[in-house]
Design goal:
It is built from nine helices and eight strands. It is α/β, with parallel strands linked by helices.
Length: about 240
């Protein structure tokens, strides 16, 4: 009998677990994103002095925003952040321009996505075993963007419950976001397992909520420790082997 045999719910992270969002570094993709965003704004006759310096400053404050959100375990208001940043530099974003800006900003991220090998097979396997499937993901972006990503890669249809931190009060590792999904699925913590690629948010968060924690290693990431992971895997197919 495997570690997962008696489990009734399979919960997953999204980025670097089912869909790879880090085929290039986040710093590099942020630079591409802001370049696309600025092109859009210039098309709306926004004029920027010292553009390159402003873009560098933008990447810096984005990193600060993300670091702060990790510290307080809550996502920032992305609309408020962008509007305040450009207002500080004497530009007002209307709702229409903001929506266009965010679409252009997100496109370089979408351009570099890929499906994690084995994702479809694993989701299909646990679904066929009668497990309820849930997804818990941290993101600053509107959930509709990630729904589209999941739809494009054919994974959206498998899930019974999905929560993105941008639409919830807390982000991982806060236990509330895990407990929310358990309630929606009508599953107790000891009946579920959670798979993610980060120790500090995925393993720690699942364990804080009393859920079996599985760490899926990302090949190009250095792990100083594996936290309190109940299982460590290199490949999603290993989940099936442990059922």
């Amino acid at each position: 009998m495997g570690l997962l045999t008696e489990k009734k719910a399979a919960l997953f992270d999204l980025g670097s677990t089912l869909i790879e969002y880090e085929n290039i570094s986040w710093n590099d993709v942020y630079k591409l994103s802001i370049m696309e965003g600025f092109k859009l704004l210039e098309g709306h006759n926004f004029l920027f002095s010292e553009k390159s310096k402003l873009m560098e400053g933008f990447v810096s404050v984005v990193n600060e925003m993300i670091a702060h959100s990790m510290e307080i375990q809550k996502e920032p208001d992305l609309r408020r952040f962008f509007i305040d940043f450009f207002k500080k530099h004497e530009h007002d974003l209307s709702d229409e321009i903001y929506d266009d800006f965010l679409e252009h900003y997100y496109q370089p991220i979408r351009d570099h996505l890929s499906l994690i090998p084995g994702a479809i097979d694993v989701l299909h396997f646990f679904k066929s075993k009668g497990c309820k499937l849930g997804l818990i993901s941290n993101t600053v972006f509107p959930q509709r963007y990630h729904y589209e990503d999941m739809q494009n890669f054919g994974v959206l249809e498998f899930f019974d419950e999905i929560v993105f931190s941008s639409e919830f009060e807390y982000r991982k590792p806060h236990p509330a976001i895990f407990e929310h999904v358990l309630r929606k699925l009508d599953i107790s913590a000891d009946q579920a397992f959670f798979v993610g690629d980060r120790v500090d948010v995925d393993v720690a968060g699942a364990k804080n909520a009393g859920i079996t924690a599985i760490l899926k290693l990302k090949s190009d990431r250095v792990y100083e420790n594996h936290g309190k992971a109940d299982l460590i895997i290199d490949d999603l197919a290993e989940l099936i082997e442990n059922y």
